[in-house]
Amino acid sequence: MINIETNRSIHIDDKQISTFIETGTAMFPMGVVFTKEELQYINDIQIKLPQEQVIIGDAGEPNLLYVSRLMVDLPGEKPTLVNRPLSESIINILNDKIRQKFFKKLLGKEKYLRRCQINRMTKNSFIGRHIDRDSNPDYDVAVVIHLGKQFDGGEFVVYPDNNKSYTFRPNYGTVLISQCKIPHEVLTVNSDERVSLVFFLSDYLEENRRIKNH
Protein backbone atom coordinates (compact mmCIF):
# COMPACT_ATOMS: atom_id res chain seq x y z
CA MET A 1 0.00 0.00 0.00
CA ILE A 2 1.24 3.51 -0.76
CA ASN A 3 1.83 6.23 1.81
CA ILE A 4 -0.89 8.90 1.61
CA GLU A 5 -0.24 12.46 2.77
CA THR A 6 -3.03 12.65 5.35
CA ASN A 7 -2.50 16.37 5.97
CA ARG A 8 -2.93 17.26 2.29
CA SER A 9 -5.90 19.42 1.28
CA ILE A 10 -7.42 19.77 -2.19
CA HIS A 11 -7.88 23.28 -3.54
CA ILE A 12 -11.01 24.18 -5.50
CA ASP A 13 -10.88 27.45 -7.43
CA ASP A 14 -13.81 29.71 -8.27
CA LYS A 15 -13.71 28.86 -11.99
CA GLN A 16 -14.17 25.15 -11.30
CA ILE A 17 -17.09 25.86 -8.99
CA SER A 18 -18.78 28.16 -11.53
CA THR A 19 -18.27 25.58 -14.31
CA PHE A 20 -19.80 22.90 -12.10
CA ILE A 21 -22.81 25.12 -11.35
CA GLU A 22 -23.31 26.09 -15.02
CA THR A 23 -22.76 22.74 -16.73
CA GLY A 24 -23.17 20.26 -13.88
CA THR A 25 -19.63 19.09 -14.65
CA ALA A 26 -16.13 20.17 -13.64
CA MET A 27 -12.72 18.86 -14.69
CA PHE A 28 -9.72 19.00 -12.39
CA PRO A 29 -6.14 18.70 -13.73
CA MET A 30 -3.75 15.94 -12.80
CA GLY A 31 -2.35 16.14 -9.29
CA VAL A 32 -5.25 18.04 -7.73
CA VAL A 33 -7.67 15.35 -6.54
CA PHE A 34 -5.20 12.44 -6.71
CA THR A 35 -1.40 12.56 -6.60
CA LYS A 36 0.83 11.03 -9.28
CA GLU A 37 1.74 8.29 -6.81
CA GLU A 38 -1.92 7.48 -6.16
CA LEU A 39 -2.73 7.41 -9.87
CA GLN A 40 0.14 5.04 -10.56
CA TYR A 41 -0.90 2.78 -7.69
CA ILE A 42 -4.51 2.65 -8.93
CA ASN A 43 -3.30 1.91 -12.45
CA ASP A 44 -0.99 -0.90 -11.28
CA ILE A 45 -3.87 -2.55 -9.41
CA GLN A 46 -6.61 -2.13 -12.02
CA ILE A 47 -4.73 -3.97 -14.78
CA LYS A 48 -4.95 -7.14 -12.65
CA LEU A 49 -8.77 -7.08 -12.50
CA PRO A 50 -10.91 -9.38 -14.68
CA GLN A 51 -12.90 -7.62 -17.37
CA GLU A 52 -16.07 -8.21 -19.37
CA GLN A 53 -17.35 -6.73 -22.60
CA VAL A 54 -20.42 -4.50 -22.21
CA ILE A 55 -22.72 -3.58 -25.08
CA ILE A 56 -25.73 -2.42 -23.03
CA GLY A 57 -25.13 -0.14 -20.05
CA ASP A 58 -26.82 -0.24 -16.65
CA ALA A 59 -29.09 2.60 -17.77
CA GLY A 60 -30.02 0.70 -20.95
CA GLU A 61 -27.82 2.77 -23.27
CA PRO A 62 -25.85 1.22 -26.17
CA ASN A 63 -22.19 0.76 -25.30
CA LEU A 64 -19.06 -0.84 -26.65
CA LEU A 65 -16.35 -1.18 -24.04
CA TYR A 66 -14.75 -3.47 -21.45
CA VAL A 67 -15.56 -3.13 -17.74
CA SER A 68 -13.80 -4.34 -14.60
CA ARG A 69 -15.95 -4.28 -11.46
CA LEU A 70 -14.84 -3.11 -8.02
CA MET A 71 -18.20 -2.34 -6.38
CA VAL A 72 -21.58 -3.28 -7.80
CA ASP A 73 -24.94 -1.64 -7.04
CA LEU A 74 -27.76 -3.91 -8.17
CA PRO A 75 -31.50 -3.12 -8.05
CA GLY A 76 -32.99 -4.05 -4.67
CA GLU A 77 -29.58 -4.65 -3.07
CA LYS A 78 -26.98 -2.75 -1.08
CA PRO A 79 -23.63 -1.93 -2.71
CA THR A 80 -21.20 -4.87 -2.65
CA LEU A 81 -17.45 -5.05 -3.13
CA VAL A 82 -16.32 -7.61 -5.72
CA ASN A 83 -12.91 -8.83 -6.83
CA ARG A 84 -11.41 -8.52 -3.37
CA PRO A 85 -8.74 -7.78 -2.19
CA LEU A 86 -7.74 -5.75 -5.27
CA SER A 87 -10.91 -3.67 -5.12
CA GLU A 88 -10.37 -2.83 -1.44
CA SER A 89 -6.95 -1.32 -2.17
CA ILE A 90 -8.47 1.15 -4.61
CA ILE A 91 -11.65 1.88 -2.64
CA ASN A 92 -9.55 2.80 0.42
CA ILE A 93 -7.96 5.62 -1.58
CA LEU A 94 -11.20 6.87 -3.10
CA ASN A 95 -12.94 6.85 0.27
CA ASP A 96 -10.26 8.30 2.54
CA LYS A 97 -10.57 11.46 4.63
CA ILE A 98 -8.83 13.65 2.03
CA ARG A 99 -11.36 12.80 -0.67
CA GLN A 100 -14.32 12.88 1.74
CA LYS A 101 -13.38 16.43 2.76
CA PHE A 102 -12.96 17.47 -0.89
CA PHE A 103 -16.34 16.13 -2.01
CA LYS A 104 -18.09 17.65 1.00
CA LYS A 105 -16.57 21.04 0.12
CA LEU A 106 -17.61 20.78 -3.55
CA LEU A 107 -21.04 19.21 -3.03
CA GLY A 108 -22.04 20.75 0.29
CA LYS A 109 -22.54 17.55 2.25
CA GLU A 110 -21.09 14.12 2.94
CA LYS A 111 -21.53 11.50 0.21
CA TYR A 112 -21.29 7.71 0.12
CA LEU A 113 -19.60 5.62 -2.53
CA ARG A 114 -22.09 3.15 -4.08
CA ARG A 115 -20.55 1.80 -7.27
CA CYS A 116 -17.09 1.65 -8.81
CA GLN A 117 -15.63 0.20 -12.01
CA ILE A 118 -12.88 0.50 -14.60
CA ASN A 119 -13.96 1.40 -18.14
CA ARG A 120 -11.53 0.30 -20.83
CA MET A 121 -12.25 1.75 -24.27
CA THR A 122 -10.25 0.73 -27.33
CA LYS A 123 -10.55 1.94 -30.94
CA ASN A 124 -14.25 2.27 -31.97
CA SER A 125 -15.46 2.01 -28.35
CA PHE A 126 -18.14 4.43 -27.15
CA ILE A 127 -20.69 5.00 -24.38
CA GLY A 128 -24.14 6.04 -25.57
CA ARG A 129 -26.07 9.02 -24.26
CA HIS A 130 -27.74 8.24 -20.93
CA ILE A 131 -28.60 9.50 -17.45
CA ASP A 132 -26.82 7.83 -14.51
CA ARG A 133 -29.89 8.09 -12.29
CA ASP A 134 -31.55 5.51 -14.55
CA SER A 135 -29.08 3.06 -12.95
CA ASN A 136 -29.90 4.26 -9.45
CA PRO A 137 -32.35 7.12 -8.72
CA ASP A 138 -30.23 8.12 -5.72
CA TYR A 139 -26.96 8.73 -7.57
CA ASP A 140 -25.79 12.32 -7.07
CA VAL A 141 -22.46 12.65 -8.89
CA ALA A 142 -20.19 10.48 -11.01
CA VAL A 143 -16.42 10.83 -10.63
CA VAL A 144 -14.19 9.81 -13.54
CA ILE A 145 -10.42 9.42 -13.04
CA HIS A 146 -8.59 9.18 -16.37
CA LEU A 147 -5.80 6.60 -16.49
CA GLY A 148 -5.28 6.38 -20.26
CA LYS A 149 -1.99 8.06 -21.16
CA GLN A 150 -2.48 8.25 -24.91
CA PHE A 151 -5.72 8.15 -26.88
CA ASP A 152 -7.59 10.13 -29.52
CA GLY A 153 -11.32 10.84 -29.38
CA GLY A 154 -13.36 9.69 -26.40
CA GLU A 155 -14.56 13.19 -25.46
CA PHE A 156 -17.03 13.46 -22.57
CA VAL A 157 -20.12 15.42 -23.65
CA VAL A 158 -22.81 16.68 -21.28
CA TYR A 159 -26.25 18.07 -22.15
CA PRO A 160 -27.44 20.23 -19.22
CA ASP A 161 -30.45 21.42 -21.22
CA ASN A 162 -32.01 20.94 -24.65
CA ASN A 163 -30.16 23.85 -26.21
CA LYS A 164 -26.64 23.43 -24.88
CA SER A 165 -23.89 20.83 -24.80
CA TYR A 166 -20.41 21.00 -23.32
CA THR A 167 -17.48 18.90 -24.42
CA PHE A 168 -14.62 17.93 -22.10
CA ARG A 169 -11.37 16.49 -23.47
CA PRO A 170 -9.71 14.58 -20.64
CA ASN A 171 -6.15 13.33 -20.48
CA TYR A 172 -4.06 11.31 -18.05
CA GLY A 173 -4.76 12.17 -14.42
CA THR A 174 -7.66 14.55 -14.99
CA VAL A 175 -10.74 14.03 -12.83
CA LEU A 176 -14.24 14.75 -14.16
CA ILE A 177 -17.09 15.22 -11.70
CA SER A 178 -20.58 15.30 -13.20
CA GLN A 179 -24.10 15.45 -11.80
CA CYS A 180 -25.94 12.18 -12.37
CA LYS A 181 -29.19 13.88 -13.40
CA ILE A 182 -27.59 15.27 -16.58
CA PRO A 183 -27.57 13.35 -19.90
CA HIS A 184 -24.08 12.62 -21.18
CA GLU A 185 -22.09 10.34 -23.47
CA VAL A 186 -18.52 9.39 -24.37
CA LEU A 187 -17.74 9.84 -28.05
CA THR A 188 -16.01 7.15 -30.11
CA VAL A 189 -12.36 6.47 -29.35
CA ASN A 190 -10.40 6.84 -32.59
CA SER A 191 -7.10 5.30 -31.53
CA ASP A 192 -5.17 3.75 -28.64
CA GLU A 193 -6.87 3.09 -25.28
CA ARG A 194 -9.00 5.30 -23.06
CA VAL A 195 -9.01 3.88 -19.53
CA SER A 196 -10.90 5.45 -16.63
CA LEU A 197 -11.96 4.62 -13.10
CA VAL A 198 -15.59 5.63 -12.52
CA PHE A 199 -17.39 5.80 -9.19
CA PHE A 200 -20.76 7.11 -8.07
CA LEU A 201 -21.58 9.05 -4.92
CA SER A 202 -24.95 9.32 -3.17
CA ASP A 203 -26.64 10.60 -0.01
CA TYR A 204 -28.29 7.20 0.39
CA LEU A 205 -26.58 3.99 1.48
CA GLU A 206 -29.43 1.48 1.67
CA GLU A 207 -30.84 -0.86 -1.02
CA ASN A 208 -30.82 0.40 -4.60
CA ARG A 209 -34.37 1.65 -5.16
CA ARG A 210 -34.33 0.94 -8.87
CA ILE A 211 -37.10 -1.52 -9.73
CA LYS A 212 -35.84 -4.96 -10.72
CA ASN A 213 -36.60 -6.11 -14.26
CA HIS A 214 -37.81 -9.73 -14.32
TrEMBL record:
Keywords: Iron, Metal-binding, Oxidoreductase
Domain of life: Bacteria
Oxidoreductase is among the record's keywords: yes
A molecular function GO annotation: metal ion binding
Signal sequence region: none
InterPro entries: Oxoglu/Fe-dep_dioxygenase_dom (IPR005123), Pro_4_hyd_alph_FE2OG_OXY (IPR044862)
PROSITE patterns: FE2OG_OXY
Domain named Fe2OG dioxygenase: residues: 112-203
Keyword Nucleus: no
Stored Pfam families: 2OG-FeII_Oxy_3
Record-stated family: Belongs to the iron/ascorbate-dependent oxidoreductase family.
Name of the protein this chain belongs to: 2OG-Fe(II) oxygenase superfamily protein
Species of origin: Entomobacter blattae
